[in-house]
């Protein structure tokens, strides 16, 4: 699995992310790109979650719901209970994972289009819940959330307080990239483990895998909660960057976009969602210059891509394919 | 109470028409048409343009909406969905395409018709008032009856015409229908065109009552999804049942839950989750669609 050549590529990729990209941005002076890259990195984590549900043969259009929940959990914990942001990050993920078990128990029995529709509706439910609950402060949202504080264990500073940084954007960039690298490492590990192979059997034929003694219900819930964990992390990290959250922070469009990222990148490839997010986000940003034709060109390109490469952009380079 | 029921029936008739188009497309091609709401909005704008700018009668506007949407639907099926379905390894790929088409229609509507809210004057003035038990503007009554008439026509068409029979056969079993000599490609196209034109007709009908704007497409699609989940995807009777049930729930909810704020849809969603846990295929759907 982990050959020498692969290790080399991963090392190159990491150097590129942590050294080359910040350096290039420094040189060219385009510091606004730091935010763009952070956003892409974070969104690609949520997309990775969606990809994982695709991997068990479910179309998940509800990731926006968990991103929203994760964001609110983090925001409420910081603002009302004075938690450290770094602690709320895993807590937000865990909260989403637990929530997704309860939601997943009934809805994971659904398949195909039914599951897709229910998850789409779920996004809308979360938005309405955020509007209705008192703790989320309705449409006003939660604003002026402080920057992440210092994280220290036994007096040793692990992560410095972001307010002390000269440029918090660099801090957020490093945070987002690190989270992304961890998320994709986890995803890659899952796919190439026993669990991954079991998931693959679910994707192909659920009855058959159940008949040879695989606990399909348990597997479905497990993968769905991992997926939602990713969604929660994305939401919480986004709250830290934007320092605010509203019920409209993550809505149906975002959920659909997470799904599109996976499709566009390629469903058969672990790094598909990463590439898809990059292309979609940057494509949208680049087209900003075209003004009112932005959406027209964007959607036409999307449709054209689908006609030319129905199995995703990653299918152009076949060698990174998940070993089956 | 009577007022709530009448309101529910009126809403239900419109909703059922939207859901019918969506479920027809789904049953024929196994495609979840994300762009359905946008087609509905497009129909509304076409009617608005024909009636308000070209000074034609309302009925001409409706027909124009139906025809134009049918053409759009047919083209979308023939040049976009059919090739992708043939080439793609996974049938879910059509969802990306459908979402792309939803964006595309949004963009086209924005460029051609602008982002303003558009509405037409009432087609008939006056309010029906039955002793203050039921109060309903006449134009809503007319639109409600037109919608019901269209549903009946649609059912009769599906039940007794040659085209309708062919489409029902396709929905039931594609392979068997092909073996019996049903031209799959042609009837898929006709089905898609018919579904799209139903969406356009509802848009045209409602433009004189609620008006129409660009942002209505997405929520309309979500409502349509809820309806076919209640009734069961791909089943015509289910779509009608789902439409009327959602209309009734909305009408009742808006009255009963008014004091708790705007939570009608939250309650509907929550009950939908519970309902689907008990009956995943909806009221009348086949198991697993």
- Counting DSSP E segments of at least 2 residues, the number of strands of chain B comes to 2
Oligomeric assembly: heterodimer
Calculate the mean pLDDT score of chain A and round it: 83
Number of domains of chain B: 1
End-to-end distance of chain B, in Å?
Answer: 36 Å
Distance between the termini of chain A: 12 Å
Mean pLDDT level of chain B: 86
**Tertiary shape of chain B:** globular
SS strand fraction of chain A: under 5%
The whole-angstrom Rg of chain A is: 20 Å
Largest sheet of chain A: 2 strands, antiparallel
Query: Structural class, from secondary structure content of chain B?
Result: mainly alpha
Helical segment tally of chain A?
A: 12
What do you see in this structure?
The complex is a heterodimer of chains A (324) and B (289). In chain A, 69% of the residues lie in helices and 2% in strands. Chain A has helices at 4-28, 32-55, 63-81, 85-107, 112-132, 168-191, 194-204, 206-211, 216-242, 252-265, 272-286, 294-308; strands at residues 151-153, 156-159. The longest helix of chain A is centred in the last third of the chain and has 27 residues, at 216-242. Chain B has one domain (2-214). Chain B has helices spanning 2-29, 36-53, 58-87, 93-113, 138-160, 162-172, 174-179, 184-206, 217-231, 236-256, 264-278, and strands at residues 127-130, 134-137. In chain B, a hairpin with a 3-residue loop joins β1 and β2 (134-137). The mean pLDDT of chain B is 86. The chains are: A mainly alpha (324), B mainly alpha (289). At the A-B interface, α4, α5, α10 and α12 of A face α3, α4, α9 and α11 of B.
């Amino acid at each position: 699995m982990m050959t020498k050549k692969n290790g080399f590529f991963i090392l190159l990729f990491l150097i590129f992310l942590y050294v080359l990209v910040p350096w290039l941005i420094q040189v060219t002076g385009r510091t606004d790109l730091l935010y763009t890259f952070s956003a892409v990195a974070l969104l690609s984590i949520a997309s990775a979650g969606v990809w994982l549900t695709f991997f068990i043969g479910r179309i998940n259009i509800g990731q926006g719901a968990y991103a929203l929940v994760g964001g609110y959990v983090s925001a409420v914990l910081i603002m009302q209970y004075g938690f450290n942001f770094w602690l709320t990050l895993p807590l937000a993920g865990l909260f989403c994972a637990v929530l997704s078990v309860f939601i997943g128990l009934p809805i994971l029995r659904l398949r195909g289009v039914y599951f897709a529709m229910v998850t789409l509706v779920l996004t809308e439910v979360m938005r309405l819940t955020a509007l209705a609950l008192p703790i989320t402060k309705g449409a006003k949202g939660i604003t002026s959330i402080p920057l992440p504080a210092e994280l220290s264990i036994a007096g040793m500073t692990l992560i410095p307080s972001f307010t002390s940084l000269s440029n918090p954007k660099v801090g957020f960039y490093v945070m987002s990239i690190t989270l992304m690298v961890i998320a994709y490492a986890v995803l890659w590990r899952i796919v190439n483990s026993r669990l991954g192979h079991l998931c693959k059997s679910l994707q192909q034929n659920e009855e058959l895998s159940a008949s040879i003694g695989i606990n399909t219900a348990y597997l479905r819930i497990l993968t769905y909660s991992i997926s939602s964990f990713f969604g929660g992390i994305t939401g919480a990290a986004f709250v830290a960057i934007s320092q605010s959250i509203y019920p409209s922070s993550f809505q149906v469009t975002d959920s659909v976009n997470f799904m599109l990222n996976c499709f566009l990148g390629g469903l058969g490839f672990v790094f598909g969602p990463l590439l898809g997010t990059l292309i979609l986000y940057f494509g949208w940003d680049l087209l900003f210059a075209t003004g009112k034709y932005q959406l027209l060109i964007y959607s036409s390109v999307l449709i054209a891509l689908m006609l030319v490469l129905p199995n995703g952009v990653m299918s152009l380079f076949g060698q990174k394919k998940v070993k089956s | 109470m009577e007022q709530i029921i009448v309101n529910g029936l009126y809403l239900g008739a419109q909703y059922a028409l939207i859901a019918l188009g969506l479920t027809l497309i789904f049953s024929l091609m196994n495609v979840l048409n994300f762009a359905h709401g946008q087609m509905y909005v497009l129909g509304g704008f076409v009617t608005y343009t024909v009636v308000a700018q070209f000074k034609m009668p309302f009925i001409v506007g409706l027909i124009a909406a139906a025809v134009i949407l049918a053409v759009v639907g047919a083209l979308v099926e023939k040049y976009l969905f059919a090739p992708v379905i043939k080439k793609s390894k996974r049938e879910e790929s059509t969802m990306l395409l459908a979402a792309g088409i939803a964006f595309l229609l949004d963009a086209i509507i924005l460029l051609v018709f602008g982002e303003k809210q558009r509405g037409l004057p009432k087609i008939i003035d006056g309010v029906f008032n039955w002793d203050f038990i039921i109060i309903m503007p006449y134009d809503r009554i007319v639109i409600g009856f037109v919608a019901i008439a269209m549903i009946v026509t649609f059912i009769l068409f599906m039940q007794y015409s040659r085209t309708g029979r062919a489409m029902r056969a396709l929905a039931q079993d594609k392979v068997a229908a092909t073996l019996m000599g049903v031209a799959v490609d042609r009837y898929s196209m006709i089905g898609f065109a018919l579904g799209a034109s139903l969406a356009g007709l509802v848009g045209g009908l409602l433009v004189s009552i609620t008006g129409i704007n660009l942002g209505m497409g997405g929520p309309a699609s979500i409502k349509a999804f809820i309806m076919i989940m209640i009734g069961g995807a791909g089943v015509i009777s289910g779509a009608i049942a789902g439409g009327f049930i959602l209309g009734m729930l909305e009408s009742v909810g808006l009255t009963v839950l008014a004091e708790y704020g705007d939570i009608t849809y939250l309650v509907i969603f929550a009950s939908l989750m519970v309902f689907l846990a008990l009956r995943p295929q909806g009221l009348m759907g086949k198991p697993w669609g």
